[in-house]
Known about the structure:
Blueprint: H1 3-9, H2 15-23, E1 27-29, E2 32-33, E3 48-50, E4 53-54, E5 62-67, E6 97-98, E7 107-113, H3 116-123, E8 131-138, H4 143-149, E9 165-172, E10 177-184, H5 191-198, E11 202-211, E12 214-215, E13 225-227, H6 230-236
Parallel strand pairs: 7-11
Antiparallel strand pairs: 1-2, 1-3, 3-4, 5-7, 5-13, 6-7, 8-10, 8-11, 9-10, 11-12
The site of uracil has 8 residues, from α5.
Amino acid sequence: MRLDKFLAECNQGTRSEVKVLLKSRRVTVNGMTENSGKRQIDEFSDIVCIDGEELRYQSFAYYMLHKPKGVITATEDAVQETVLDLIDKKDCVRGLFPVGRLDKDTTGLLLLTNDGKLAHDLLAPKKHVEKIYEARIEGIVTEAEVELFSKPIELRNGEVTKPSRLVVKNVDEDAGMSEIEITISEGKYHQIKRMFASAGMHVLELKRIKMGSLELDGRLDPGKYRALTQTEIEGLKISD
Ligand code: URA
């Protein structure tokens, strides 16, 4: 394996951060300073150190799941089916967990990984990672709500949200329904349902389609998952 890939997989930063790290001459392979990411190493027998500290190779798993309705976002439950139950035994690596939470009746993109740092970064409020959802709303969503949601709004329990971007996709006046897309950059409990509730409306269907740079693969049916590509993994890594 290339040394730069090894360092990135050991959570030492994005590809460009790893390049800087190598140029700083802090990396050694079997005791010799190495500054080229192209250097081939054996990740199981070569000893790679940063500032004299040995790195232990850990291969991380990253899956995107198209979460179906009726499954809870948890790692285990005595009664209900969880998102982990949808992962084949062979792919269920130790420490795999869902990054963030979708309600039982929410569908769409859910990332599962055992990479604690990546998960922490994606969920950290100060990183403002954007999440995009499509929703079907009972009620007629107008420019008034678009304007309302573009500013902090107070939920019924007094919590205040960050501004969000609401786009009205379709309105069926006769049925009294609207289809919308909404982008939020935080993850309060039942956030979108509570935002619409504060505007006197009800969310009928909710589906997450994007988280940071990661988009739900349209070829994945509900309940199916696939491993992320290397490009998708790199895209999710956030600089400190
Ligand atoms: N907002 C909600 O109300 N529910 C979800 O599952 C995600 C965001």
